[in-house]
Amino acid sequence: MLEIKSGHHRVGIYPALGGAIGYWLCQDTPIFYPLINSHLAKSANQIIAAYPLLPYSNRIADGKFEFEGRKYQLDVNALNEKDAIHGNAWEREWELESFSKNSVTMILCHEPDKDSKKQWPFSYKAQIKYTILETGLSVHLSLQNSDRCNQPVGLGFHPYFPRKDSVEVGFTAKTVWNNGNDGLPQGRMSIDGRWAFNEMRALTQDEQLDNCYAGWDNFAFIRWRYSNAYLSITSSHNFQHLVLFNPENKPYFTLEPVMNMNNAINMPEISDRGLTILKPGQRLEGNIFYSFSGD
């Protein structure tokens, strides 16, 4: 594990485990929530606090899709799942490109012909850069199409957050996709009632939520009331969606800035699905900044 530091902040990073973050601490306060997620097959026995999502976010139904006249079948990559989930970069060993006191850059070159598993049929070169400042954490993601054909791409980032001390959440979006019991989008709904976070409200442990918000305005705010701690999340405009996952009776939740909606590759009729078709040599990139303030 590598560690980068600035002021009271320390971030531990696993290049060999999907370029994931193992911890982010301000003094001794965990900002991301480290946990062992047995759902993720590759990292079943590792403590993970955040990880990149590429070349797509969330699910591809049954691991199947059709693109430009060809049909593809992906291997399932999560335990007890029938869908492919979160791309394949979180399962791979990233190569260290540069490392300094407060910044680390890693690259990943995916070549499907050299892959024993069918997790993504197109070649790409990805880069992730973490920079820790006295005010917070910067995450830069990029993916270049290194194949000879077009490929559909979406990027995202998946942090876990602690839900102690009466946590409150606020953000604004245009609509929300309601997931069915299978974790796939059932339909688009207007945002009101229990779906609304345009005014900050508590996120309780008994409130099960697993939804993808569309038309997100690229700003979200988290407040831990009793510890007087605050976190703001800002991103570049191409992160059009925000996934909120609040599992019932768990000590964590997620707010995931992502470009594509869930199962976007199988929903070409949705004009704002957030998937980008990269031509050979083209690059997709985006930035996310987490600004933390606490006693």
UniProtKB/TrEMBL annotation:
Domain of life of the organism encoding this protein: Bacteria
Gene3D superfamilies: 2.70.98.10
GO molecular function: aldose 1-epimerase activity; carbohydrate binding
Any coiled-coil regions, as ranges: none
Transmembrane portions of the chain: none
Pfam families, per the entry: Aldose_epim
CDD domains, per the entry: Aldose_epim_Ec_YphB
GO biological process, one term: glucose metabolic process
Protein name, as recorded: Aldose 1-epimerase
